[in-house]
Specification:
Number of domains: 1
Low-confidence stretches: none
CATH class: Alpha Beta
Oligomer: single chain
Order of helices and strands: HEEEEHEEH
Shape: globular
Largest sheet: 4 strands, antiparallel
Number of helices: 3
Strand order of the largest sheet: 1-4-6-5
C-alpha cells in the first residue's frame, strides 16, 4: 500500500487526537507543504485570537482567516502563498 499525503484537515485532525494540549501550528516551515504545486505555509490555530496573533507574528495580517470544520473539530487557518512571504517564513523557522 502506498503512502498517501495527508490533507491539511487530516493532518490537523490527527494532531489534535494525539495532543493533550494543542498549540498553534506552522505547516510547511521546511518548504514541504504545497498548494497547486507551489510552496506554501499554512498557519493553524484553535481560536480566533491565536490565529490573529499568528498572522501578525508572520507579517501576513492582511491574509484572510479561514474557519475550517472537519469531522468533530473546528480550527482557523491562514494560507501564505506569496513566494517572498513563504521564503521569509521558511528562513524565520530555520533559526
Amino acid at each position: 500500500m502506498g503512502n498517501k499525503n495527508l490533507s491539511e484537515q487530516e493532518w490537523v485532525f490527527n494532531y489534535l487526537k494525539k495532543s493533550n494540549k494543542p498549540l498553534p501550528l506552522v505547516l510547511g516551515s521546511r518548504g514541504t507543504w504545497g498548494i497547486n504545486g507551489n510552496k506554501a505555509i499554512i498557519l493553524v490555530a484553535f481560536s480566533l485570537p491565536d490565529i490573529a496573533v499568528m498572522r501578525d507574528l508572520h507579517n501576513v495580517s492582511k491574509n484572510p482567516i479561514r474557519e475550517m470544520k472537519y469531522k468533530d473539530i473546528v480550527y482557523y487557518a491562514v494560507n501564505i502563498v506569496a513566494k517572498k512571504q513563504v521564503e521569509y517564513v521558511i528562513d524565520y523557522w530555520k533559526e
